[in-house]
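Let's do one together. I've listed all components of the complex below, 347 residues spread over two lines.
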Amino acid sequence: MARFKKKKAGGPQSINTASLPDIVFMLLFFFMVSTTMKEVDLKVIVRPAQATELSKLEHKELVTFIYVGVPSRAFQSLYGNEPRVQLNDQFATVDDIQSYIAQARDNMRESDQSKMIVSIKADKECPMGIITDIKQALRKAAALKINYSASQKTTK
Amino acid sequence: MAKRDIPEVNAGSMADIAFLLLIFFLVTTTMDSDTGISRTLPPVVPKDEPPPPPIKERNVFAVLINSQNQLLVEGEPLDISQLKDKAKEFIENPARKDNLPEFKEIEVPLFGVVEVSKGVISLQTDRGTQYQVYLMVQNELARAYNELREELAKKKFGKDYKDLDEDQQKAIRKIYPQKISEAEPKNVGGK
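Okay, and this is what the predicted structure of the assembly comes out as:
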């Protein structure tokens, strides 16, 4: 004999959440595809300069970064508040750049070595002196393709 | 024999796991795509190399930036907003003036023989110049070239420069080569 369960009267209906994981996974994949991993912890403050004639850095594996800026507050007592260079995760001096570039080049595939691009991410208020020193060091290191990192200028 | 029920896996915590992953990726990744102004540095000149032949004064467009971020273009103070037009005039030399650069005729595929400006833009900064100002100047100069290329692309092919194919872009780049030379910096303005 069939038995019928009597539906309880009233009470909120529960929402079916079976597709929630799907939605969240979709978001997850979106973020995985559209973002990139943070490679280094910035120890210097870099407020990007702005420009309009930008080109995109397409091949991530060819790019080596040099950060320039004033040390962030936590490091100011140790490193002062003059603009400094950051290579990988450490503070460095301009003299370290040559060996840094050589090391970065060694880590690249041989076919890519000639296509190496160095991206200079400098704070917008940093003086040109240090940038010029970096450029001279890069010339000596024969890393001639450079990119001045900048963000799109929004308002004219 | 009775069919045994396969116990259903409880997927209720799936959403939690996915959220956890999602938040992990949100925190550890950055959205910013890397954009910037690309330039090529000149290689180091060997010591025993003879100095390059001097360039005629009229072929040089000298841009100087001092430590107060002021511009001196061709010996006159100039606002950055006028730099692009001035640079365009210099590269194009529409009236073929005597004080603006000379032209040489070269053979360019798709175009035939064309006159190409011999002009070189020389950019010199002070050690105290702000990076943003330097970049803006670079940007304006690049904009001058890009606009000229765009105009030529429109005139010749009736299309935007970025829509042209590789050979056409190459030809246009040959007619308007980006010649920006950077002199060694000076430290005149002090710190």
